[in-house]
Amino acid sequence: MFTATPTLPKIDRLASAPDGSPVRAIWIGQAGTRARIMTWGASLMDLRIEGLPHALVLGSEAFAPYLGPMRYFGAIVGPVANRIAGGRAALDGRMLTLERNEAGRSMLHGGTAGTASRNWRLEADSPAACTLSLSLPEGTGGLPGPLDLRASYLVDAAGALEIRLEGRSGVPTFCNLAHHSYWCLDGSGSLDRHRLQVAAARYLPVDDALIPQGPPAPVAGTRFDFRTPRPVLDAVLAREAPPLDHNFCLGDSAAPLRPACRLSAPGVVLEVTTTAPGLQVYDGGGLATAPVPGHEGRPYDAHAGIALEPQGWPDAPNRPEFPSVLLRPGETYRQVSRFHARPTAPENRP
User: Fold this and answer.
1) Are the C-beta atoms of residues 5 and 15 closer than 8 Å to each other?
2) Cross-referenced CDD domains, in alphabetical order (predicted)?
């Protein structure tokens, strides 16, 4: 178990979780950036930077939407983010039978009782940082446990939001966490004016269940080539390509954090770096929160935001050739991701 800090300053209580525990939220920030973190799902509810009047992530000030149409918005998803094909995975010679919570075919984001649907414990906070913890019991979604997790949010001196994720277990299990915010940088509720650049020369083709079909493929010559900035929705809206919900295979980097992507809209840019080997990019084509409104007072529709999720590769428990998400006793799962949003000068606007 992680050691908790015993004394906490007062924070906001939003509501009660389904189990009766208090759902709390706290603002942290410095250098012109403020982030609001909620204990339910260890979620980023809101992120704002000085000079812009709107939130940069989709969400709500109320708790109830996070039990419904905003279930994964801003949450730490896991214990195994993304999909496990057929709800089955081999572990040390035995076949695990996992919850198939996506169309009865695959496990998605650790199942219905995964990390996004749990009330984490706020361990510590300061003006610029907070740390939350969660212990998942044995059998969560069919996975071995218990699994002890920690999520730390920090707004650094440059105004970037850094997220540190850790996991430990006393038994062999799988661990692959991901931060799942939907980003809309201009407050419009649409990705129409957004451009994306991804630092990846390869991606994972998927079948109709969004399960990887084989080894990584080159992005060159495909709609997945974002090596130079491109409009997020050009091919989708032209009906020339399938929806964007794919893993991009990030290259090796000598730096502690490797470049992942750059998202821009008029007047603002977001740069993402990470230690994770993959970046799942989902263009939000299935979003539909009506009649529940978000930060700007209106419901979110299809393509209202884009999910940029540093993580291990999907279906890794069934793919020994993929980067491993196996966690053994005595080991610590670690991921660090940094999201740096800042205004751009008018003459440099994308």
Assistant:
1) no
2) galactose_mutarotase_like (cd09019)
What region does 210 belong to: left with phi over 0, alpha with psi -120 to 50, or beta?
left
347 noted as active-site residue: no
Tell me which of 180, 246, 303, 340 is the catalytic residue: 180
Q: Is 347 helix (H, G, I), strand (E, B) or coil?
A: helix
Catalytic member of 99, 162, 166, 309: 309
Q: Within 10 A of 262 (CB to CB), how many other CB atoms are there? A: 18
Peptide bond into 79 cis (omega under 30): yes
For residue 225, what are its two tokens?
Answer: 């080539």
Cα(163)–Cα(2) distance, integer angstroms: 17
The residue count of the chain comes to 350
Mean pLDDT of each 10-residue bin along the chain, 350 residues long: 42 93 97 97 98 96 97 98 97 96 96 97 96 97 97 98 98 98 97 97 96 96 94 70 90 79 97 97 96 96 97 97 97 98 68
Residue corresponding to tokens 């650790």: 110
**Burial class of 254 by CB neighbour count within 10 A (0 to 12, 13 to 18, 19+):** exposed
For this structure, is 309 an active site residue?
yes
Reduced to 3 states (helix: H, G, I; strand: E, B; else coil), residue 41 is coil
d(CA 15, CA 45) in angstroms, rounded, equals 14
Residues 6+ apart with CB under 8 A from 147: 79, 135, 136, 140, 167, 168, 169, 173, 175, 327
What are the extents of the domains in the chain?
Answer: 12-348
Beta bridge partners of 77: 178
12-348: which CATH number, 3.40.1280.10, 2.70.98.10, 3.50.50.60, 3.60.20.10?
2.70.98.10
- Tell me the C-alpha distance between 185 and 191, whole Å: 9
